[in-house]
Amino acid sequence: MALIRIERAVKRYGDVLALDHVTLGVDRGACLALVGESGSGKTTLLRTINRLTELDGGHVTVRGRAVDAVDPVRLRRSIGYVQQDGGLIPHWTCLDNAGLVPALLGHNDPAERGRDALHAVGLDPAVFAGRYPRELSGGQRQRVAIARAMAADPDILLMDEPFGALDAITRNEAQQSFAALRESAGVTAVFVTHDLREALRVATRVAVMRAGEIVMESAAGDIVRNATGYAAELLEKSGVAQ
Ligand code: ADP
Ligand code: MG
């Protein structure tokens, strides 16, 4: 059974149909990349999973339960979420940022969990725990955001263009370390990106969005073979070998 199930999801913003009857499943342990151009509905779709998008139609179930049947705050704390801009609290240290969710959940060891999470994303707590976000590079900030999302050991991780602002080399490193971390943690992930190459580096499955619809879904390894129409165009544009 899929850990995340989205059925015929519809979302309107005024005249804009941001989600047009989207159906999608994510199996436990998978990493699904949502790929598409700006405005195609990726963020809106991602946020249906932790109920930051309230649907106008359709259903979302997580772990076999409808998201609108569970307490939204508990739901959000049980799902790691890296926002498009990282979303770190600027006047909190890295350690306080990293330990936020365990603290909110009332764990008795948020600092220890925060330290473990910093360590897991490759930031030495002895060096970084007391620093503020402004004292970090872009790549380090994104690592802290990922540490924060994973510190409470969630089974689901949502990532919204987490590496979009990084330069090419840092971005490559971040993609590789994320892929390794995700696999070792066994976390199920949905990863939004407008970069198909990035999707193929980090994901096991890829769904291509256009104007609020999923126009193609495929195992990452089969996408070059399966792509037709718009998806093939995107592949060509992103320079993925045919
Ligand atoms: P993406 O993440 O793929 O760039 P979004 O999901 O952010 O796309 O947006 C999909 C569409 O919905 C766009 O046309 C966007 O302008 C619109 N939209 C998203 N959020 C809002 C909002 N809060 N209010 C009005 N329109 C929105
Ligand atoms: Mg977006």
Please tag this protein with its features.
single chain, alpha/beta, four-stranded antiparallel β-sheet, 242 residues, binds adenosine-5'-diphosphate, six-stranded mixed β-sheet, binds magnesium ion, 37% helix, 11 helices, globular
What does this structure look like?
- Helix 5 (110-120) packs across helix 7.
- This protein has a domain at 90-154.
- The strands form 2 sheets. It has a 6-stranded mixed beta sheet with strand order 6-7-8-3-9-10, sandwiched between helices. Strands 2-1-4-5 form a 4-stranded antiparallel beta sheet, covered by helices on one side.
- The protein contains 11 helices and 10 strands.
- The chain has helices at 42-49, 72-77, 94-98, 100-104, 110-120, 125-128, 138-150, 168-185, 196-202, 223-226, 229-237; strands spanning 2-13, 16-27, 31-35, 57-62, 65-66, 79-82, 156-160, 188-193, 205-210, 213-219.
- The two termini are 33 Å apart.
- The protein has 242 residues and is α/β, with parallel strands linked by helices.
- Helix content is 37%, strand content 27%.
- The radius of gyration is 18 Å and the shape is globular.
- Adenosine-5'-diphosphate (ADP) binds at residues 13, 16, 18, 36, 38-44.
